[in-house]
Each structure stands twice: as structure tokens, then as C-alpha cells.
């Protein structure tokens, strides 16, 4: 076949083609590592060391594999498509990297994958939340692929309900580009001087001492509960410009010995510690993470590494399912489905309920669409086969499954409501009615904790 007749290789088709070559190499007895650079190009690093330290790869094999990579990947073949570890000492470091993940279709783990990206890398790094202290904190992420789905309002209401049953609740505003949960909860309280962004900036230069990261809400919960807020943006130092935009431009950088994910986790722990050091002296029982929307590094770290439970908000439309489909496909492709799927639960926001639009009909459609989307994360069981003890494939009507939606009713009164000028807005009957089922279900899920902590344990 002439080069002009070859099928054009695009980004989407390059990855499966690269894995095919890597598996062929593995079939000849060599462990290898596929490395994708920030432009999407692939190089294959082969562990070719023999017992005597020399290469086990013949020149004919190397030439053949290099040609396969070049021919099948086209413009997505790396500048050095084939690298033999014996010829490049730095390749040993790549082969031993803790950032590699196994080929999900190769149980022998002879093929591993290392993805180098500018953003979004942490979607495929699913791990157990790092806890400190004797009592684990329940951490719940509240996330929406698209904005405007009522995520922040739901966070505020959930926080109050948890505090009202006697829990010490900390709400951390991780929507750094569009902070907003603070004003919903602050009430008559005073905003603290510093915020999440300040800790991220100051920690990079070892300057976090005496930061004021949390404040107590003016709301007084029942049953000795407490409600604390860690805002994204603090009030700032008196007489000094806040410089929030300048700080925001620097928070996502990796620093020496610490990736952004590590730094964000450290900031979260600092906020939890600040509550415990307060006059209360109590460590948070529950932390609610109001996450950034979209495919963003904050959301990636929050859902994949910081939380026990992720409430995924959405409306029943093509945008919702295309967005979540992309995320689920990324988890499935990186072999992380078993670690993440039981951590997730869909929330159907702004559900219509009228004579023209039945809530039941809407939720049935939502559930069906969510089930199709989640199928990428569920195990496939062939007809007539028995599922193994570790298989996870809940049915469409399973009301405890991740795809089963928790409803929040659409309420016109919430549209455009100026919360700071609406005292006790959370107690209004139309608000409570819209969020009634969501709050009852979400409180139960948050307090239950992870169903099986080992399911998504750190690799």
C-alpha cells in the first residue's frame, strides 16, 4: 500500500495502534513502556537487558518494531519511536516510574503506559484519600460537568443539614476560578483573611505559618453541630490589594518534589487542621468539596484522589452525557474503572414536575442515559455466563447503583435569587421541597462512607 493510500492516523486512533505494537513486542517476551508526549506522539521503551547486561534485542527486531511504529502511527510516532533501555540509561528511570499504569487489556502487565499531559493527567490517578488523625474524615466532592446545575446551592443546603444533626462540617470552595459557596453559607459570619488559593501560593515558598484559612458560619446549627467554610478567596490583608488573579495564575504549577495534586491535598489537610486548632477543638466529621466544573485539574484531583464519594450533577441532555462519557472512557481506558465506579453517584438536577413534564418520565429517561454512560465502568458479563465474585455490573433498575439519579426538582423561585439579600433562604418551603429527596439520600450516602475502601485502594 502506498503512503498516499494509507488511512490517515488521527489522535484517537493513535493510542490503540500504539498499544497493538506494544502487545506484539510483549508477545515476543519483552516488557515495554508506551510513553505519550504532550503532543500525543508515542515512543516505545523496551526493557531489553539480558542476564549479562547486554541487549536481548537483535538489530532485525529493533528495525522491525521501529518500522511498525512509524507505519502505524504516522505523525503520532515520536521523534525516537523505539528506545532500548540498554542504550539509554534514563530509560530505566521511565520504566521504574510510579506514574505508569498497566495496559487494561493485558493482565500480564508486560505493557505499561506513561501519559505526559499539560492538564487532566490526574483523572487516571485514582487512589484512596490520604487521611491524617485517628478518625477518618468523610470527604464528598460535589461536581458538575457543566456549570449552572445547582451544584453550589446543593452543597450549601447539604452542609447545613449535616451540621443540624450534630456533625462538624467543613465546606471547601475548590471552584477557584468562580468562587461562590462562601457567601451562601457565611450568613452573619466574618470571612477569613486567607483562602485556598493563598495556601497554594504560600506553600510553594514555604510560607504558610499563621494563615487564616477557615471561618465559622454565622449559622448556628442544632444538636451541637458546627459549620465551617474554607473559601477560595479570602478577605485579604487590610489596606493591601488582594491580587487574586495573579495568585490564581500560579496555583497549578508543580513544585520541587510535589505535583499539583500533592499540593492541593496538603491544602485540604491544612484546612481540616485549622478547624481542629480553632476554639472548637473538634476535627471535621464531614468535608464537602465544591469542585470546579469541566475537565479541569482541580476536578480531576478532587474526584480521583481526595474524596470518598463524588456526587455528579447533570441534566438529561446530550452535553451532559457526552461530557461524562469522555470522563468514564478515560477511567476505563486507564484501567481505573474498578477503583472509581463505586465512589460515584449521579444527581439529576432541575427535574421538571408538572402536568406537561412528568418527573417520573424525566427520571426514567435520565436513568437510561446514565446507565448507558456508566456501562463503560461496569464489568461486561456475556449472556449465559456467571459473574465472578469481584464482578460489578448493576442492573438498570438498581436504586443503589451509581447511575441511579438522586433528583432535585426545578423551582422557578431559585432562579435569580439574590442570596445575600434573602435571609434564611434555605428554610423557605419551596427550597426545602425542591431539595427534599436529594438531602435525605445525600446525607445517608455521605455518612455511610466508602462501601469498600479496598476497591479503590492506592496502587
TrEMBL record:
Pfam families: CbiA (PF01656). InterPro entries: CobQ/CobB/MinD/ParA_Nub-bd_dom (IPR002586), DNA_Partitioning_ATPase (IPR050678), P-loop_NTPase (IPR027417). Residues 141-179 form the CobQ/CobB/MinD/ParA nucleotide binding domain. It comes from the Bacteria. NCBIfam families: AAA_KGGVGR. This is AAA family ATPase.
Amino acid at each position: 500500500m502506498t503512503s498516499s493510500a494509507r488511512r490517515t492516523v488521527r489522535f484517537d486512533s493513535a493510542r490503540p495502534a500504539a498499544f497493538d505494537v506494544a502487545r506484539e513486542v510483549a508477545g515476543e517476551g519483552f516488557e515495554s513502556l508506551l510513553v505519550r508526549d504532550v503532543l500525543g506522539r508515542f515512543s516505545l521503551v523496551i526493557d531489553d537487558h539480558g542476564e549479562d547486561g547486554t541487549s536481548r534485542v537483535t538489530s532485525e527486531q529493533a528495525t522491525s518494531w521501529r518500522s511498525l511504529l512509524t507505519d502505524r502511527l504516522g505523525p503520532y510516532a515520536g521523534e525516537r519511536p523505539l528506545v532500548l533501555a540498554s542504550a539509554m540509561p534514563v530509560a530505566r528511570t521511565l520504566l521504574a516510574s510510579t506514574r505508569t499504569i498497566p495496559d487494561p487489556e493485558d493482565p500480564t502487565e508486560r505493557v505499561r503506559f506513561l501519559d505526559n499531559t499539560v492538564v487532566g493527567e490526574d483523572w487516571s490517578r485514582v487512589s484512596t484519600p490520604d487521611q491524617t488523625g485517628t478518625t477518618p474524615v468523610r470527604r464528598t466532592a460535589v461536581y458538575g460537568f457543566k456549570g449552572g446545575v445547582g451544584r453550589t446551592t446543593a452543597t450549601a443546603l447539604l452542609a447545613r443539614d449535616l451540621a443540624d444533626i450534630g456533625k462538624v462540617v467543613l465546606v471547601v470552595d475548590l471552584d477557584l476560578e468562580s468562587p461562590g459557596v462562601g457567601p451562601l453559607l457565611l450568613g452573619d459570619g466574618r470571612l477569613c483573611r486567607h483562602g485556598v488559593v493563598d495556601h497554594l501560593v504560600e506553600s510553594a515558598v514555604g510560607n504558610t505559618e499563621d494563615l487564616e484559612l477557615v471561618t465559622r458560619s454565622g449559622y448556628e446549627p442544632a444538636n451541637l453541630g458546627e459549620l465551617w467554610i474554607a473559601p477560595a478567596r479570602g478577605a485579604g490583608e487590610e489596606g493591601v490589594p488582594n491580587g487574586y488573579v495573579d495568585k490564581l495564575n500560579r496555583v497549578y504549577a508543580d513544585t520541587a518534589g510535589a505535583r499539583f495534586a500533592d499540593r492541593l491535598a496538603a491544602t485540604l489537610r491544612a484546612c481540616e487542621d485549622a478547624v481542629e486548632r480553632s476554639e472548637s477543638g473538634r476535627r471535621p466529621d464531614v468535608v464537602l468539596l465544591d469542585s470546579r466544573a469541566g475537565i479541569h485539574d482541580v476536578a480531576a484531583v478532587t474526584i480521583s484522589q481526595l474524596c470518598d464519594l463524588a456526587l455528579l450533577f447533570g441534566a438529561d441532555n446530550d452535553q451532559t452525557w457526552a461530557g461524562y462519557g469522555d470522563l468514564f472512557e478515560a477511567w476505563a481506558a486507564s484501567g481505573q474503572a474498578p477503583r472509581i465506579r463505586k465512589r460515584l453517584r449521579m444527581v439529576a438536577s432541575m427535574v421538571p414536575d408538572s402536568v406537561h413534564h412528568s418527573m417520573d418520565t424525566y427520571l426514567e429517561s435520565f436513568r437510561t442515559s446514565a446507565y448507558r454512560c456508566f456501562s463503560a465502568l461496569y464489568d461486561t458479563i456475556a449472556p449465559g455466563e456467571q459473574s465472578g465474585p469481584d464482578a460489578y455490573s448493576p442492573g438498570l433498575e438498581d436504586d443503589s447503583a451509581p447511575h441511579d439519579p438522586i433528583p432535585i426538582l426545578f423551582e422557578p423561585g431559585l432562579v435569580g435569587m439574590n442570596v445575600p439579600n434573602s435571609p434564611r433562604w434555605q428554610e423557605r418551603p419551596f427550597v426545602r421541597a425542591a431539595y427534599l429527596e436529594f438531602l435525605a439520600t445525600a446525607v445517608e450516602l455521605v455518612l455511610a462512607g466508602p462501601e469498600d475502601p479496598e476497591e479503590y485502594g492506592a496502587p
